[in-house]
Specification:
The protein has about 675 residues and is an alpha+beta fold. It has 25 helices and 28 strands.
Length: about 675
């Protein structure tokens, strides 16, 4: 078609010349219009416009522009300003465009159109991506928020709003100080600054934010700076409510400091208080005393009436000690049936007076399951500075005096006498050491078995091997003699003997046809001194290695109170044995002062919850919360849990409700000789 052909007669010649000279030289879509608004008609258009509409230029001439273009606004001409609209193609589709109008005179307009389909698609895709991103961020349980360079909140997800109780309009555009008190804001600025400047690697940190209702909520915060042109333009923050973690930390801290059965300070915490008091006493030249209280008839109660009765007796004694002592006095449970009482500013006469009141208080019977029991005690008294210069020595002197009270018949208080008691204590220790050495040499050590039940399946494929010393027809438990030899080389010999016997038992069971590799784990106790000693560790490693991979698994139990001389050497030893298929359990968890530190550093597979927590599950909500907390924490770091001292069905059900994995105690079975569990596996030296 010749330029200008098909143009309406109403169009002026200069318009045609303009169209011809300017509008056909490039790909730009354009049209020459006459009239305004809905009355505008097409005088002529560029070939590119006609092509985009799928029409011929001739059929567009003299037709209303509204047939080909639909403005997004009211359609009135806006000289020099683009407007948004759509081209109406012949196939019915709509093409998004930007339109510029330039007046040419005599009511005519020159319209330039730009196809923005690609840009719109990008915008729509970006909008969809933003929606998806916001949907993802809003689905997160963690709070996500963005601050601009002025510390204003420019984005916050639903978790942020819900956690703090705000609506979006109350937060967006507001300064972060809306939820951060001044001291917390300054701390956040300091930490963020060190991260941004590279003075410290990015790491989470804790803050306390203020909710709309005034609640203080502890959170863990992760910050990432958004940089543009080398400058930080925004901060992206992710925060997590750690209220539950804080509560767990408080519970575990309380657990680490107190005795769960009696609520008294545990041994570690009591000794810390003694050390503090001795510092004060030295500075002020003041005396103080320490009472070592040991129950005389606890073993009989425990053996004849069961652990639950024994626990109730200990609780009753603890309460009576509390009632007797003065406000500044400090009471703790040293372990078992032993208690300690620190008496600040007390001399010998004052200490004897407190001891006499305590003995009198214990004369009142305690009702235990329908029986009246009188809890008799022996009390040893030691004084600072007369008898000792430090905390451990003060405890040791009081302990010696307590044993003298027992030898004199019990039920009395005796003050420490330098020389005599110490000699007797040494004699007692040497006596046990000699008896144990003789039993080891004469083959009078035996292993007893106690089952450990899988609460998830009801199966029993774990057993703890418990050491006994045979003497005068009696099987003496390890607790009676091991403390006396714990600091000698005997304990390492015993550990090696137990490992060898356990491996020999596995070989005999395998020879009988038992599939021990898949269906049997033997738990054995190991001393902390053995863990840190190269010679004993090498002997145990050699024995396990020589046994080969066909054996069942050994699980080494390490008590929290074990004296591990070299923690790093113990860790290496444990890792080597794990590589050989062995496992490790943290025994008596909760009674040691460094529970969490060892659990974090040493490669344990199991946590055995101390029986003092378990025995009170049916009566004490605090014990239930603590056991649940231990089970939850252990599971979170990939460990399984064993509840000790499960004695009846009620306790068993409480343990199940705490989500503990295994149970051990009288309910599962009393310790029995190995040959009674597996006939034909009698001990052989």
């Amino acid at each position: 078609m010749r330029p200008g052909a098909g143009a309406a007669p109403c169009c002026r010649d200069e318009a045609r010349a303009l169209i011809r000279s300017l509008l056909r030289r490039g790909p730009l879509m354009c049209a020459f219009l006459h009239g305004q608004g809905d009355d505008a008609t097409v005088c002529d258009c560029s070939p590119s416009l006609a092509a985009r509409l799928g029409r011929r230029r001739a059929e567009m001439a003299c037709r209303p522009f509204r047939d080909f273009y639909l403005p997004a606004s009211d359609g009135r001409p806006r000289a020099g300003r683009p407007e948004e609209g759509h081209l109406l193609a012949a196939d019915g589709s709509r093409v998004p465009v930007l339109l510029w109008r330039a007046r040419t005179g005599d009511g005519s307009w020159l319209a330039f159109l730009l196809d923005v389909t690609a840009q719109r698609r990008k915008q729509e895709e970006m909008a969809r991506q933003r929606e998806r991103l916001e949907s993802i961020l809003n689905s997160l349980r963690d709070a996500v928020w963005v601050l601009d360079s002025e510390e204003r909140i420019i984005f916050a997800n639903r978790s942020f709003m819900a956690g703090l109780g705000f609506r979006p309009e109350e937060v967006l555009g507001k300064h972060i100080s809306l939820v951060l008190p001044r001291e917390q804001l300054e701390r956040a600025r300091q930490v963020n600054r060190s991260h941004i400047l590279g003075e410290a690697p990015p790491a989470p940190y804790e803050l306390e934010v203020v909710a709309k209702d005034g609640r203080i909520i502890p959170v863990e915060v992760h910050i990432n700076p958004v940089r543009e042109g080398g400058r930080v333009r925004a901060l992206i923050g992710v925060s997590r409510d750690i209220s539950e973690r804080r509560r767990l930390q408080v519970q575990l801290a309380h657990l680490a400091r107190t005795d769960p059965l009696t609520g008294l300070l545990n041994r570690r915490s009591l000794m810390e208080e003694v050390e503090k008091e001795l510092v004060r006493a030295r500075r002020q030249d003041a005396p103080c005393a320490f009472l070592f209280v040991d129950l005389d008839n606890f073993k009989e109660v425990n053996d004849q009436m069961g652990h639950r009765a024994g626990d109730q007796l200990l609780q009753a004694v603890a309460e009576r000690i509390r009632q007797v002592v003065r406000r500044p006095d400090v009471v703790g449970r040293l372990g078992g049936d032993e208690f300690g009482v620190l008496l600040p500013d007390s001399d010998g006469a004052g200490a004897q007076a407190v001891a006499a009141r305590l003995l009198a208080a214990l004369e009142v019977p305690v009702a235990l399951f329908g029986q009246a029991v009188v809890p008799q005690a022996s009390i040893g008294v030691a004084l600072f500075p007369d008898h000792a210069c430090d905390a451990e020595e003060l405890l040791a002197r009081a302990d010696m005096a307590m044993y003298r009270a027992k030898r004199e018949g019990g039920g009395r208080a005796v003050a420490y006498q330098p020389g005599e008691a110490e000699a007797l204590r040494l004699q007692s220790r040497l006596s046990w050491e000699g008896r144990v050495r003789a039993a080891l040499a004469e083959g009078r050590l035996r292993l007893y078995c106690q089952p450990i039940v899988d609460l998830r399946t009801g199966a029993t494929y774990r057993y703890e091997l418990l050491l006994r010393l045979l003497e005068d027809g009696e099987a003496i438990p390890a607790g009676a003699f091991l403390p006396a030899v714990e600091r000698t080389d005997l304990v390492q010999q015993i550990d090696c003997w137990v490992v060898e016997q356990a491996l020999a038992l596995l070989r005999r069971l395998q020879a009988q046809g038992h599939d021990v590799r898949l269906h049997l784990d033997l738990h054995i106790n190991i001393s902390g001194r053995t863990l840190g000693r190269d010679a004993a560790a090498r002997a145990i490693e050699r024995a396990v290695r020589d046994a080969g991979p066909g054996q069942g698994r050994l699980v080494f139990e390490v008590t929290e109170t074990a004296d591990i001389s070299d923690l790093e050497a113990a860790r290496r030893f444990m890792l080597r044995l794990r590589d050989m298929g062995c496992a490790f359990a943290a025994d008596d968890f909760g009674v040691g002062y460094n529970s969490l530190q060892r659990l974090r550093y040493l490669p344990f597979d199991f946590v055995k919850i101390d029986g003092s927590f378990v025995s009170g599950l049916t009566e004490n909500e605090s014990d239930r919360r603590l056991v649940r907390a231990i089970a939850t924490a252990a599971r979170a770091i990939g460990m399984e849990t064993v509840a000790e001292q499960v004695e009846d069905e009620r306790t068993l059900e409480a343990v199940r409700l705490c989500h503990v994995d295994y149970a051990q105690g009288f309910w599962a079975g009393l310790p029995r000789p190995v040959e009674e569990i597996w006939p034909g596996t009698a001990h052989r030296d």
